[in-house]
Structure formats: structure tokens, C-alpha cells
Amino acid sequence: MTISQSQNRRLHQLLSMTGLMEEKKALIWQFTDERTESSREMTLREANELIRFLEKYDPLEKMKKKVFAIAHSIGWIIAGDETDKKINQAAIDKFIKKHGTVKKALNEQNKAELAKTVSQFEMIAKHTQESKAGKAVEELLSELGLNTEKKLKQRVKKQISLS
Predict the structure, then answer these.
(1) What is the DSSP letter of 59?
(2) Within 74-110, where are the H helices?
(3) I need a surface site. Which of 24, 28, 49, 121 has the fewest CB within 10 A?
(4) Considering Cα of 113, then 115, then 120, then 125, what sign does the dihedral take?
(5) Of 70, 82, 77, whose CA–CA distance to 129 is shortest?
């Protein structure tokens, strides 16, 4: 038996809501085992499976995971069990609510807000990497007995204060 009208309406509604309308043919092709690209030619079972998939699909999940990945890469959170995940979520939410471009918990943000949060975390990661690299260079130069800009400034200040 083929898809019902109400299933087809629901399918198109979900495709639209999830922003996957452009992927409609590919999704139908996949869920029909490469039999068709048309929703009207889907069976009831195929349509139900695709509808269930779309109902569970969270288009913002990828952006949220990126925030977590960045936070992990800079050492703000640690990987672990469910308890650690809850602690990590609370830590990220606390930071975002206090210092975020968007002062809302991660799960409360819409797509535009999440894009701003991801961008902010990317900038924090970039700054953290640059800061670590600068410190490493300064330590290496110091070990080699070479003057760094920081040491030169300290020496000039010292000479000025002695005069």
C-alpha cells in the first residue's frame, strides 16, 4: 500500500521544518532502498520510517556538538560518562549565560543564536591557541638565552627607574 495523503503532508511538513527539503529526493531514495525519489511512490512502511527519522532529527544538534568539541579542545570540559556530560552542559551554559554573545542556555538557542555562539567559541579557541603558541615561543627563546620583547620592556623599565 502506498503513502496516505496525511502521511505525505506530514512528511513534507517535517522536511520543511528540518530544512531538509532540498534533500527530499535523496532521503526518499535512501528510505526506499533506491526504488524511487517520489514521496507518492513510497509504501506506508517506508513513509513511516522516514517520518520517524525526521521527527527525531535535530538540525541544531551539529552546531551544539561543535560548541562541545571546541570547549573540549581548549580544555574547558572533559569527555566522560552521563554525569560528566551533565556537568559539561552546566559549565558551558553557565559561561554562555554570563559571557556569551547570546545569554541563553545552549538548548534554548535558535539557529541564528547558535551560529553566534559557535562563532564566539571559535574565536576563543583561536585566541587560546595563539596565546599558547606565544608562551611556548617565549619559553623557547628564554631557554636559548635570547631576549624576548617582554624581557626587553622589563629591562627598559628597570633602566628608567634607576635613572
Answers:
(1) T
(2) 82-99
(3) 49
(4) positive
(5) 70
Secondary structure (3-state) at 2 = strand
Give the Cα separation of 68 and 71 in Å (integer): 5
Q: How far apart are CA 6 and CA 8, in angstroms?
A: 5
Length of the chain: 163
Q: Which residues contact 148 (CB under 8 A, 6 or more apart)?
A: 138, 141, 142
Helical ranges in 40-148 per DSSP H: 44-56, 61-73, 82-99, 111-143
Tell me, what's the pLDDT at 133? 80
Q: Around Cβ 3, how many Cβ atoms within 10 Å?
A: 22
pTM for the whole structure: 0.57
pLDDT of residue 132: 81
Backbone angle region of 39, left / alpha / beta, with phi > 0 → left and psi within -120 to 50 → alpha: alpha
Domain boundaries along the sequence of the chain: 5-56, 61-156
Check residue 17 and give its pLDDT: 82
Output the nine-digit C-alpha cell for 48. 513511516
Query: Could you tell me how far CA 21 lies from the centroid of its own chain?
Result: 22
